[in-house]
Design brief:
There is one protein chain. The chain is an alpha/beta fold and about 450 residues long. It has one domain: TIM Barrel (Alpha-Beta Barrel), CATH 3.20.20. Strands 5-4-3-2-1-9-8-7-6 form a nine-stranded parallel β-sheet, with helices on one face. About 50% of the residues are buried.
């Protein structure tokens, strides 16, 4: 989850992402249950007052906040949970999934999962440690699994900022590395899917299938561009508190890059090489080519879950919709469309979406208006021109959204406070209750 990083960087004069224009046929999208499916209102952890040991109690408290959990047929309350993928102890995966289904049955609050497709893989140095013989997992061949700074194959050593808003020890993943894709396929098909299938079947047997709200597959995939890390002398003065988070990220990234002697260059050359490009045969538009790689990576993940029997109406993609949709964006809103999942975006009302969701509606119209999701959302992000919560929810549900995932998580404590206070303010609670009770949301 990008935690608004790309947009804030753009606001203070820098850009982190970048698009393209891979043409996707209008029928290449999920159209299952478009008219009559359940509309879900999901709350991602951490919830107010929750501790790692107190997740269950915070979920049990949700129904009391809203006075209802919905009817399980048209509208339904839900909570978010996370399925780890790249872990050293793979028994953790089942232990992360099964209790969430049980909690959903106990509380009548549906569970919606998120799968991080590319960020968190620190525990798998056997896939990325190409550089340190003294540490676990060392294999020079791992350079083929991480992104490169140039056509010569200079590999990335670690990520200096991520969509999660924090640096990581592990490098940037090469999305179309054959070894990476083989491992992803193994984990999903042999470990994740059997557990999900078992638990979903239990819900069906109890006529509680509505308590599985699906999976957001992805975490705002894109290619880091470290040429956008500016010199400190170029950072504008008088940074406001909201943008101070970005300033801290920039300074930390610059310090780490100096430590690693990393070039201030864009990443993506491993993926481009695997896609058939080279120094002698470069793409006409680098960002368009990277967006195409990104779209195929998203579709690859979605198809794995679809092939396991999870309907496309319970799978959502996850791309940030707020960054500028220009020629410097390798993760444009258009790459979310594929036959195996519903389109899903981060939908904070900033940047491209500051004045409403027309850019999303236009993209949806080009693909026959499928159902979609605002998989990471919050109306209150500290802007002065924010919509009311009812209006914000209406921008989603009144225009075909079947899921809105309210997020309060961030790496900066002040931003967490802003998101949390907004999501559970009196105004927000009134809008949430109105939705769950089946009343019409008004776009004032």
């Amino acid at each position: 989850m990008r935690k608004i990083l790309a947009v804030l960087l753009a606001v203070i004069g820098f850009s982190t992402t970048a698009p393209s224009s891979s043409a996707i046929p209008a029928n290449a999208t999920c159209s299952a249950n478009n008219a009559n499916d359940i509309e879900y209102l999901i709350f991602w952890p951490p919830l107010p007052g929750a501790t790692p040991e107190g997740l269950a109690e915070s979920i049990r408290a949700l129904p009391a906040k809203f006075g209802t959990t919905g009817d399980g047929q048209t509208r339904q309350l839900g909570f978010g949970a996370f399925i780890p993928i790249f872990v050293s102890d793979e028994s953790i995966i089942a232990r992360a999934i099964k209790p969430m289904f049980e909690l959903a049955k106990q509380t009548n609050v549906a569970v919606h999962f998120n799968v991080d497709d590319h960020i968190i893989w620190d525990e798998r140095p056997d896939l990325w440690n190409w550089y340190d013989p003294a540490k676990r997992g060392y294999n020079p061949g791992n350079r083929k699994n991480v992104e490169w700074y140039d056509w010569e194959g200079t590999p990335n050593k670690r990520r200096y900022f991520t969509p999660a808003g924090a640096p990581l020890q592990s490098p940037h993943m090469c999305y179309n590395s054959p070894a990476i894709r083989k491992e992803i396929s193994r984990i999903v098909s042999q470990i994740v899917d059997p557990v999900l299938t078992q638990e979903i079947n239990k819900l069906k047997q109890e006529n509680k299938e509505y308590l599985f709200a699906g999976i957001t597959v992805g975490a705002e995939g894109g290619f880091d561009d470290y040429s956008k890390i500016p010199k400190l002398s170029n950072i504008p003065p008088n940074i406001d508190p909201m943008h101070m988070q970005v300033l801290k990220m920039i300074m930390l990234a610059g310090t780490m890059m100096d430590e690693d002697k990393a070039p201030h260059s864009r990443l993506g050359y491993c993926s481009l090489t695997n896609a058939g490009y080279s120094n002698a045969n470069p793409p006409a538009d680098v960002n368009a080519a990277l967006a195409d790689v990104n779209q195929k990576f998203i579709e690859f993940w979605d198809k794995l879950f679809f092939d396991a029997g999870i309907p496309c109406s319970r799978l959502y993609t996850h791309v940030a919709a707020s960054p500028p949709q220009d020629d410097n964006n390798n993760a444009p809103i258009s790459i979310v469309f594929n036959p195996y999942a519903r389109p899903g975006w981060t939908t904070y009302p900033i940047g491209t979406l500051e004045n409403g969701f027309q850019p999303l509606y236009d993209a949806l119209a080009k693909h026959a208006n499928p159902s979609w999701g605002g998989v990471e959302a919050n109306a209150t992000i500290g802007n002065t021109n924010e919509p009311s919560w009812e209006r914000y929810l209406a921008w989603h549900y009144n225009h075909g959204a079947k899921l809105v995932g309210i997020n309060i998580g961030a790496t900066d404590q002040s931003l967490i406070s802003t998101l949390s206070k907004g999501a559970f303010s009196d105004e927000a609670l009134a809008a949430h209750k109105k939705f769950l009770k089946g009343e019409k949301l008004i776009e004032k």
